[in-house]
Amino acid sequence: MEIFERLESEVRGYCRGWPVVFDQARGSYLYSESGEAYLDFFAGAGSLNYGHNNPALKQKLLDYIAGDSVIHSLDAYSASKREFLRTFDEVVLSPRGLDYKVQFPGPAGNNAVEAALKLARKITGRETIISFTNGFHGMTLGALAVTGNSMKRGGAGVPLSHSATMPFDNYMDGQTPDFLWLRSLLEDSGSGLDRPAAVIVETVQGEGGINVASPAWLRGLAELCAEYEILLIVDDIQMGCGRTGPFFSFEDAGIQPDIITLSKSISGYGLPLALTLMKRELDLWDPGEHNGTFRGPNPSFVTGAAALDAYWRDDRLQRDTELKGKIVEKHLQAIAAAHPQLGATVRGRGLAWGLALESPEVAGAACAAAFERGLLLETSGPQDEVVKLLPPLTVTEDELDRGLTVLAEAVAAAAVQQP
């Protein structure tokens, strides 16, 4: 550990909760260099929906590299990009009746968000972006301006402006608000709210604590945006690619956002890749107006196309994810019922779940106890009070049962430690 502590910045985070050196990974497991196996219920913060080193994707990548194929190509045409776009259209867009243009804005989710915000302002000529309480959209300045967490916002070092925050679904004492309040602000010239360029929303807030928006709330938001000619951006970076069941997390609501951001598991293999999707008529970029060096990650195109081909030509993965989600929910409800003194609540969709506890200390202690027992978990929420579960979608039912059993033991141990 000495080299990390001496040379790596104090900003490092996950390693503090998992103080081992990992050197191998297969399926749902990470392995330390001393040979311990850790069941991974974090999956690269949702970047590894298909598990570690998925064999079907790995072989495609190895063959591509062995053939001296193009690795870096900026936004030049490449055979691997063509195959990714063809597969994405054939497997994802066309079956859902979606007509989007695809932008490759850079390697990470925040690149997709920055491009979406910039495009929305260019299209509308307006500046303000509406975001929601406990939302998280990235760590660069534009993305931070529409992020709720005060600690992350404070790291910007400069004022974060041109945004307005509104309450997310269930934020106000468990209520599902209608949009009369926002409509009133938009209609009233004295409200202080400038006509927004866009609204950006996560259908399930991952970093915010696994807060789930109802389909009705999302439909109401989409209807309001259409009524006032405000662009609707859905940030599907963590919850897309099947994390909630369907490929896109907004499908159950029956809406079609104007702009969508994707990253994390879109490459299939944990490699960097991000997409900004916009309705065809919104593609008003001038050539080179938004660019970057790493917009052509060809190995990511290869594994991304392979993942789409392997998992999204039918609905088996979606059905498996929804079934496994019910298993997780049942186990978490049992854990909550076993420890009424913790004030636990359960929330989630698909294979994104949270066990929200009244005490952040208990949540942290539960994750620490899980690590000691060979299970990787992290906390989320404004106070880190939510134990967050993001297992690979390819996790087996036996692995799921083992991990949930360990979690029950870890929560029990954490509960005993508290005064």
From TrEMBL:
Pathway: Amine and polyamine biosynthesis; ectoine biosynthesis; L-ectoine from L-aspartate 4-semialdehyde: step 1/3. Keywords: Aminotransferase, Pyridoxal phosphate, Transferase. The keyword Transferase applies. Its cofactor is pyridoxal 5'-phosphate. GO terms for molecular function: diaminobutyrate-2-oxoglutarate transaminase activity. SUPFAM superfamilies: PLP-dependent transferases. Its EC number is 2.6.1.76. The keyword Transferase applies. Belongs to the class-III pyridoxal-phosphate-dependent aminotransferase family. This is Diaminobutyrate--2-oxoglutarate transaminase. The gene is ectB.
